[in-house]
Amino acid sequence: MKKPQNQIIEVLRGDVIVLFGVISDTHGLLRKEVLHALRDVDMIIHAGDIEDADVLSELEEIAPLIAVRGNCDRGERVNQLPLTNIYDTGTKLLYIIHDLAKLDIVPETAGISIVVFGHSHVAKSEMKGNVLYLNPGSAGPRRFNLPISMALVRIEGEDIAVQFIDVDST
User: Domains in the chain, ordered, with CATH?
Assistant: First the structure.
């Protein structure tokens, strides 16, 4: 088992840097390309529709994991996941939910910087006001002829950088 990496790394000038691997909608399939892309992350976020608890176990061997329950998650362990979660990087608050249509807060009012969601299987990164809305797409079985994708999110101090990874081409 790989030792969990530090969640927050401080660099010389005092900025906080954290690298997240963001996935969603694996639907019981954890591709080797996804595992490879996650190898250097500090933290993994799974935005629901996991379906198989073995996916959680494999991800936890790579890095600390934050996961939420999606509408297809019915197994014993995945059914116990929260519907939403909040993570504080030290400079940014992340709000994780599976279905954006069920968003139950006003992110700007709550001080949220990034809303991570899944459900649609469509990769998307969009700023609305001061909040980044991020859907990594689907990392699981192909559906609706959409690409298979995930995202890497690098937070350095106040800066956020998103890189989508087309898992089909890795």
Answer: 11-169 (3.60.21.10)
CA 124 to CA 136: how far, in whole Å?
7
Do 13 and 37 meet the contact criterion of CB atoms below 8 Å apart? Answer: no
Cα–Cα distance between 77 and 86 in angstroms, integer? 19
In 3D, which of 111, 20, 106 has the Cα closest to residue 67? 20
Say which residues have a Cβ less than 8 Å from residue 12's Cβ, sequence separation at least 6: none
- How many angstroms separate the CA atoms of 89 and 113, rounded? 10
Which of 115, 10, 36 has the alpha carbon at shortest distance from 124?
115
For residue range 136-167, what is the model confidence (pLDDT) as tens digits? 999 999 988 889 999 999 998 888 999 999 98
- Given a contact cutoff of 8 angstroms between Cβ atoms, the answer to whether 170 and 149 are in contact is no
